[in-house]
Design goal:
The complex is a heterodimer of chains A (113) and B (115). Chain A is mainly β and 113 residues long. Chain A is built from no helices and 9 strands. Chain A has a 5-stranded mixed sheet with strand order 1-9-8-3-4, with no helix packed on it. In chain A, strands 2-7-6-5 form a 4-stranded antiparallel sheet, with no helix packed on it. The chains are: A mainly beta (113), B mainly beta (115).
Chain lengths: 113, 115
């Protein structure tokens, strides 16, 4: 699975959009980009995923560059409850692949009042 | 919304004792996982399980560890003889089926403390 690079930490003002970048320059054509977050020591919470098109759901938007080498997770109106560690993970979908997730250190997002 | 549930939320055990961590995956899911997170460290993959057998395991998952799906709903992780270094959060996850791009969903974990 391709490796990802994320900034260690970011701050965001409450009510503003939080834009979390992720670099995955070695991504292959069969690999999806997944975003999870972890609040305190709770279990990782799924946010969104995509292959090459931009995606949006009730939690966030995912923007993937045309060359797929990077992506940005957007939380449109961050709240204090969005303070968490955000993980960008690339995962294969080939026959025989178990789909395990390889977590990095992620980005610690601090939403400030 | 369906969710993965784990019990107990906190388990305290003496070193050398056996411990069983329990998970109820999402009901129509077929692929199951265990991960662990030592305090202050990354979430680490332990094992994946499909069709009543282990499909992949990490180097961490040695002979002291075993997994089982004893019935149609539970998925368990057993540590035979616990060590101090087994103290960690243990997370169970599940997803619908192989070769699917659908995400894994995680439980809120069991905090295992070895004394």
């Amino acid at each position: 699975d391709a490796k990802t690079t994320q900034p260690t930490s970011m701050d965001c003002a409450e009510g503003r959009a939080a834009n979390l970048p992720c670099n995955h320059s070695t991504i292959s054509g069969n690999e999806y980009v997944y975003w999870y977050r972890q609040i305190h020591s709770q279990g990782p919470q799924y946010i969104i995923h995509g292959l090459k098109n931009n995606e949006t759901n009730e939690m966030a938007s995912l923007i993937i560059t045309e060359d797929r080498k990077s992506s940005t997770l957007i939380l449109p109106h961050a709240t204090l409850r969005d303070t968490a560690v955000y993980y960008c993970i690339v995962r294969l979908h080939l026959s025989g692949n178990t789909g395990k997730l390889i977590f990095g250190q992620g980005t610690t997002l601090q939403v400030k009042p | 919304e369906p969710e993965v549930t784990q019990t107990p939320s906190h388990q305290v055990t003496q070193m050398g004792q056996e411990v069983i961590l329990r998970c109820v995956p999402i009901s129509n899911h077929l692929y199951f996982y265990w991960y662990r997170q030592i305090l202050g460290q990354k979430v680490e993959f332990l094992v994946s399980f499909y069709n009543n057998e282990i499909s992949e395991k990490s180097e961490i998952f040695d002979d002291q560890f075993s997994v089982e799906r004893p019935d149609g709903s539970n998925f368990t992780l057993k540590i035979r003889s616990t060590k101090l270094e087994d103290s960690a959060m243990y997370f169970c996850a599940s997803r619908d089926r192989p070769y699917s791009n659908q995400p894994q969903h995680f439980g809120d974990g069991t905090r295992l403390s070895i004394l």
